[in-house]
Amino acid sequence: MKAGSIFGAVNAVQQGQRGALMPWAAVCLGVGVGVYFALPVEPGLAGYSLAGLAVALGAVLFAWRREVLGPIGIALALVALGVCVAGWRAHQVAGPVMDFRYYGPIEGRIVGIDRSASDAVRITLDQVRLDNVRNVPLRVRVSLHGEQGYLDPVPGAIVMMTGHLSPPGGAAEPEGFDFQRHAWFQSLGGVGYTRVPALLLEAPEAGATPLFSLRMRMSAAIQAAIPGQPGAFAAAVLTGDRSGLEQGPIQDMRDSNIAHLLAISGLHMGLLTGFVYAALRVLLALIPPLALRYPIRKWAAASALVAGAFYLALSGGNVATERAFIQVAVMFTAVLLDRRAITLRSVAIAAIIVLLRRPETLMSPGFQMSFAATTALVAIFNGLQGAAWMRNWPGWVKGVWALVVSSVVAGGATAPFAAAHFNRLAVYGLPANLLTVPVMGSIVIPFAVLALMLTPFGLSWVAFWIMEKALEWILGVAERIADLPGAVEMVPSPPGAVLAMIALGGIGLCLWKGRGRWVMALPVVVAMVIWTGAERPLALVSESGGLVGRMTEDGRALSRPRGDGFVAGIWLENDGDPADQESAAARGAWAEAGAGQVADLGGLTLWHGTGRAASREAAEVCARYPVVVVNSWPDEPTDALLEAEADSLARLIATAPPLGAANAQEAQTCLLFSPTILARTGAVALSVGPDGLRLDTARRHQGQRLWSP
Q1: Residue 102 phi, psi (nearest 5)
Q2: Does residue 621 contact residue 594 with C-beta atoms inside 8 Å?
Q3: Labelling 672: which of 22, 371, 388, 495 has CA 20 to 30 A away?
């Protein structure tokens, strides 16, 4: 094919997409960010130089043939820019990370308060001081267990305690969620807990954390006005403080697919600013001299923007709220500039701003679900705008129709991401949203604004009482729907590339103009086929060596009913298995063997032992079983045990991962997973094929990155 015909074909495609190319800029930037996080090694000078050359090449293409190659040049430059922005951000947030387990005094200033998965109050500290530690982390996070009646956590307070800290843990399994990466971008260098009372060392300085203090005071005032979990719900919605919410209501909202009502995200920010905008515009329209002479629409938009900025600052400026504010800020800025407020361009601009500020959010479910829902809603409603068959419908019918369509479209767009990240599909999510979202928009948010306005007159209790009834309704709906039989369908985790294929295919369906858009459904279909046919690992070994899970026909059988509970929960969730650890341990795949247990791996036998007694038997069992896992090391390891560990480590290092045909049955020593080896490999997935034992490691997927040990 001649060059002229190629250029002609490219130009024809671009002409067909004229006016619709700008949203693809956000896609290209996001692809570059995704490439950075997918790299197996951290880019060095050569890598960033290559990215710079890609930007220069894009500029050359744009200058050479702007009409034909200009968009391609811009796309290439944006992808390279995404890589650079993500790398710059990763270096910007760098801080010391603990490389050992610490027990001793912990001192620091409270900069975050929330709850852990076990419902314990959890505090994040900066200005950290540890005893005899050279590289002290910028931040640590400590869960407060046991009797804690001596401290009322308040922002800015200097506190002290005696507790345990350890480095952020790696993924619970290969291709699993990388908590070390997540902690890196929060400058979180240690996580742990205390079981002794935390004490106040120094009260907060006046004005040290004004917004945080204001948020917690408002949260306390709201929970005093609205008692119980409805008040904690209101505080979470209005201030972002979730420390009063218990796990029961949160789980009910997740199971009924209305957990998004808890997050200060696009919905709440849109409802608040939309209410302020509409209310001010109506009030100003009632004053004819103003309505006829001045741009009251712009005044209302500017006021709503200020209200949104205050809401952002009050809520603590977390990623989800920041993303929501950027989206509404773009919308109201369009109103100020006499442009269409709700378009795919405005969504793309918001995505670009978020990615430039915090590129790591691309990997979070919040970013993915928020922009998936927003993009799909804007695309669908733009397509339905002016539809002839809706023209003569009564206003209330159009309102109900819009509510149903919004719930269906948003639910469908976010369902793959929710299933991939949380391993669950809420079967009754649509009716739950139809019963609760209108209540949130028409009662909770408006009366929250009204309560703020009535506070100086001492009448805020009226608005709070109405809010309480509305919030009780929402929590009641969540509880009843979550208790319905079959309310939650568990879903196994997909392979790594599936979510990217679904995302790119869905974006193409929304952005591409013309009939060719339906070709974009192909990646989505292929991804779903891959997902449904994917198999979970035959056996999983935790990073600590304290737990092993063997897949059976009844589900994964765990080696222990207690211990490594967090990892056990993640494994079972990723399997799409609703069982708890104790039930999974009773599935009968393990048999006692000395101080440990054995399980069959399809022709190979795995021995797992925990504690000192098992470590003393490790050398003996290594001569009898091909695969051995221990979580501790004897005080005086025998030469045979040291030789087995050295041999196993050499084989793991010498073999390009995954291990491939490393047949443990033919080896002179067993394949030993000791604490030393697991510290290098992270969690391990095992399977047995015709060529022998195959394994995959969490560290292989993590790569040699800034946040990897």
Answers
A1: -115, 140
A2: yes
A3: 495
